[in-house]
Amino acid sequence: MKPYTPNPFEKYVDEGYVLLKGFYSPSRVERALEYLSQCATRALEREGDLHANLQALRELFPERYSNLLNAFVRSMTLRELLFNDPSLMNLLTQLQLIEPVYTTYPVSHLISEDLWSNPNKPGEIVGSPWHQDWASMQGSLNALTCWIPLLDVGENFPLQCIAGSHRDGLRPHEDHGNTFPEAAPTPTQQQNIVTLHCERGDMVIFSSFLLHRTRPQSAGSSGFRAAVSIRFDDMSDESYRNRDYYCAYRHTVDREIRTFPTSEEIVHSIKKGNEALH
Taken in order 242, 88, 23, 34, is the CA torsion positive or negative? Predict the structure, then answer.
């Protein structure tokens, strides 16, 4: 692992983000991408290019596509490859996150002309508009996000942020009809937009109050981008404690039984899993 920066905390406090070059080995991130490809191949029951398979899944089996991505980010494979890493825990400590706690499940960020479109403007590919993660977290005030590209990110819908915007506090978020509340930056803030071009193995870590977005197609983005992110709160944060450790995320249970597997199917599945281990 390469040394990512001599003093990440200083830049993080000043600008609200740090781009850590070579934080992970590219081969480690490649294994995470390969696992996603295996999952998509199995879900579609055909071999093929990852992007093409994801596109086909989204068009033919939209519920399976959505549930597949949710299962992928919850997988032990992804967690062991990217999140349960002593180097990551050491970095969080450097950034003064004293007692890190997972805010929610990891999030997948897949976008291309075929995978994401604006419902109000057919043909316009936008991704996530300007927003602050804390608006959907509402946990500790020093909460942060780790954003990890699974592919090199150049012009293929890069992450953009507004350096220093975390120091301006929380901005109002409004839903303009695209189901994703957004926070409009001020004219002054717009002068500090930074486009983050990343290579596989890099990681961007940023304050939950930092304004950021996916650079839209209208700003020159095109192609396929795959990334994942994880959010952390801090159990030691006084404000978090005073607000009773509130978290805006809610995990509910759908009690409707949608399928009744037979006893034969259950036994077959157990035996098949045992065979795979030997």
Answer: negative
